[in-house]
């Protein structure tokens, strides 16, 4: 990156012989590794530059990077932390790892690492600018909840994720649609995972919209490809491993050096905008979704509670949502 060292992501590097004297990791990970001169970090995913007695290669770097492997690899270090004089690049690298869905850990100025790809920290601003999103195509899509449905696909030239909206019933400017802003959860939406409430929430939302359509209203499901609250599937599954060791969902993400909430809600506002919708009734228990959409210019005329029955496997997850993440759950 501009003005900084070359950084090789530990998880996805293909240069098998790469080696480096230093690694860049999150401060949460550094704290777990008990760095001797580690100061208290300002943010759990702030970066730390570490060195050990030997140089790092990809085999030794992976267990240093991945807290979900700690039980299998208890002995690491000792390491020391060095000052970073390329802080903006280090922060941008952590964010790039989050977006790519990989562990936030890099070899710094590696040798035998192949040719480096040049990036500027400001490239991230362009990536997160919602103006780049556009409607790619739309088609009729009868679904089991309603035969009267239409799918609209959205894409941005610089992002491979395809977000979709499912419009149920007849779009009308006279009535505000019932909207569900749903983030991808492969385990819950497709496999029927009992660890979260995503699958039942999705089904109930579609049923409620179909009901609206039967009464002359309409609804929109915004299905956002922001798996695991924006950390990606593999990192979410690493968080599940940590949850099996006793960490709750917030602490598990933080231990991975990742934010516990990294979704891009302005993107959902932009999708509504592209559909010509600026006032909605929103089905959610999450006040942050309401605030984020309102901040992006969408009027929420009503927050519709969207709480489904719990089960023994998701009870702790729902309690954590209520007690630590501010969800309005009873
Ligand atoms: N990182 C992480 N993500 C999870 C976990 N369990 C579920 N998720 C993700 O959490 C997201 C849930 O999204 P939503 O149901 O849209 O939103 P919400 O913030 O729970 O708010 P509601 O609108 O009230 O349902 C999905 O992207 C899931 O993949 C977990 O334990 N860790
Ligand atoms: Zn889920």
TrEMBL record:
Catalyzes the conversion of GTP to 2,5-diamino-6-ribosylamino-4(3H)-pyrimidinone 5'-phosphate (DARP), formate and pyrophosphate. It comes from the Bacteria. This is GTP cyclohydrolase-2. The active site is at 263 (nucleophile). It comes from Pontixanthobacter aestiaquae. It holds the Pfam family GTP_cyclohydro2. Its EC number is 3.5.4.25. Residues 312-330 have a biased composition (Basic and acidic residues). The lineage of its organism: Bacteria, Pseudomonadati, Pseudomonadota, Alphaproteobacteria, Sphingomonadales.
């Amino acid at each position: 990156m501009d003005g900084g060292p070359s950084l090789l992501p530990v998880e996805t590097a293909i240069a098998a012989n790469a080696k480096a004297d230093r690694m860049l990791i999150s401060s949460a990970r550094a704290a777990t590794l008990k760095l001797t001169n580690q100061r208290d970090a300002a943010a759990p995913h702030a970066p730390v530059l570490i060195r050990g007695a030997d140089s790092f290669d990809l085999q030794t770097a992976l267990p240093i990077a991945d807290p979900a492997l700690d039980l299998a690899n208890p002995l690491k270090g000792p390491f020391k932390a060095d000052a970073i004089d390329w802080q903006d690049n280090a922060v941008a690298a952590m964010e790039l790892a989050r977006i790519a869905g990989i562990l936030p850990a890099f070899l710094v100025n590696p040798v035998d690492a192949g040719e480096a790809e040049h990036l500027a920290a400001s490239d991230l601003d362009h990536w997160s600018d919602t103006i780049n999103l556009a409607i790619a195509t739309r088609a009729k899509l009868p679904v089991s909840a309603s035969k009267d449905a239409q799918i609209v696909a959205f894409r941005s030239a610089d992002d491979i994720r395809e977000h979709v909206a499912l419009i149920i019933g007849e779009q009308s400017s006279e009535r505000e649609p019932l909207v569900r802003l749903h983030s991808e959860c492969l385990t819950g939406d497709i496999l029927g995972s009992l660890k979260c409430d995503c699958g039942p929430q999705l089904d109930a939302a579609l049923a409620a919209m179909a009901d609206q359509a039967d009464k002359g209203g309409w609804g929109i499901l915004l299905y956002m490809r922001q798996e695991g609250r924006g950390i990606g599937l593999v990192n979410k599954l690493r968080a599940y491993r940590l949850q099996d060791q006793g960490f709750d969902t917030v602490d598990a993400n933080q231990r991975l050096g990742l934010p516990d909430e990294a979704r891009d809600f302005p993107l959902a506002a932009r999708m509504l905008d592209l559909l010509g919708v600026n006032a909605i009734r929103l089905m959610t228990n999450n006040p942050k979704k309401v605030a984020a959409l309102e901040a992006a210019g969408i009027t929420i005329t009503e927050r519709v509670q969207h709480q489904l029955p719990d089960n023994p496997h998701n009870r702790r997850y729902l309690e954590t949502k209520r007690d630590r993440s501010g969800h309005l759950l009873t």
